[in-house]
Amino acid sequence: MKHIARKRFGQHFLADVGVIEAIVDAIAPRPGQAMVEIGPGLAALTQPLAERLGHLTVIELDRDLALRLRERPQLTVIESDVLKVDFAALAQSMSPARDAETQKLRVVGNLPYNISTPILFHLLDFADVIEDQHFMLQKEVVDRMVASPCSSDYGRLSVMLQWRYAMENVLFVPPESFDPPPRVDSAVVRMVPHPRPVAVNSLLLSELVRVAFSQRRKLLRHTLGKWLQEKAFAGEFDVQRRAEEVPVTDYLALAGQIKDAAS
Q1: pTM
Q2: Radius of gyration over every alpha carbon of the chain, rounded to an integer in angstroms
Q3: So what's the architecture of 202-262 in CATH?
Q4: pLDDT tens, position by position, 159-180
């Protein structure tokens, strides 16, 4: 019985064999690696990944799809909303008993367009237990993720993710590669956590960047400048710039100064 894509889950199933092979090659799975796939759907990526790995853990919210996936012996199926999954606990549970430390996870998936950004922010909290991430996303989102300062795509998502990951747009995927075809272009992004990221309070950084980009056409003195005054910030930071002109390193340095001043 054919599964009908459900709009409420943002389902668009990958169907192009050539694109599937290109994505699997980009991921380059090796036997025995601990890998988790988010939203396996009709198993277009799942099957070739499982064949190369030997075993694959998948997270699927759709009850009907989860039932089908459980029929595959190479899969461990977690029927859950991915936003409720503790990836640190999952990494621990997937580590061989002989390992003294938690085995790092490789995470992959064709992320639903309607909740892709919340998933990315959820995974930020677990970057320490993740080796790398390969995601299919709306191309517009990938452009924002990898954007450089002084570009229209550079924003909060760019800063928050580039703080924690080195990222690369590795593959363009047109709408006709899916069933049903979405109304947007897609792309595959590779995300590798920085081994020694700048130590900042993630909630503070998130608030800081949100305020900075709240009125991106105005100079920062109108937005972030006022916010810094409320924080009684006495350090130096050039607010005669627009938010998109400030590199990630400057935002991280500012977050560190605020933290140090508060402690």
Answers
A1: 0.90
A2: 20
A3: Orthogonal Bundle (1.10)
A4: 999 999 999 999 999 999 998 8
